[in-house]
């Protein structure tokens, strides 16, 4: 078999496993990203996410993560929920859509392991590693390089025909494959995401100050929430989807087909009063396998109290 056949087989299997798109780029140094990342870190836009400072070189060169790496296989997995399963209305607190169901790390890791096993069975012994947002890999940069979409003004990867409600994952392997090329940026003159961000975290088109983002405050920040942010979170208590919800490209979002991402039936029934009275037991039951566990029961309570006491909530 040649490179083209290997690439075809991998993409076919990825589709069979439920991935929305699969693209390939050459495992090489990310020249364009290096100064951007350095500048972003220098300006402290990562806030207390100190792990972003670690493994700077590895973030930019996949060959330092996987010996002999030749190709980065980027994959997208849809998580957009059915309209009737989304939290709507003003009488509830909101959790980001990506966290409705089972923690994506587990779901995607299993699919990636199956894909890597398939490659070894069908193509031969191939060395590689699976990556799901938990290692120093610049997911969006690789997905962009492999033509899966462009990085929008809100710094999310946007794919034509589907929008941006998907997870990004990678296989970095020591197998030579056919590479895909990047596509055009179709944000045009639109500034909806910049205009809609309540904390002004999108400081310029394509530049997000992570330390001002609602997702950062409600998930990453372990300290007290800053008083100057009072009243700016709306009803968001874990993550935030505002810059995606207003993006015109997300009118193309279609519901996912992944049973593991289905929300706990109780979630969309929760009213503000239910959230405010949530017990450790209910928290554990609702978010047993969810990414919401990351903030913990006390962290979620802190977020609820902060939003509850905000003017206009």
From TrEMBL:
Catalytic activity: epoxyqueuosine(34) in tRNA + AH2 = queuosine(34) in tRNA + A + H2O
UniProt-annotated binding residues for tRNA: 222
Residue positions binding [4Fe-4S] cluster 2: 197, 213, 240, 243
Enzyme Commission designation: 1.17.99.6
Positions annotated to bind cob(II)alamin: 59, 133, 154, 157, 168, 215, 240-241
Residues noted as binding [4Fe-4S] cluster 1 in the record, renumbered to the chain: 187, 190, 193, 247
UniProt subunit comment: Monomer.
Name this polypeptide is given: Epoxyqueuosine reductase
Lineage start: Bacteria, Pseudomonadati, Bacteroidota, Cytophagia, Cytophagales
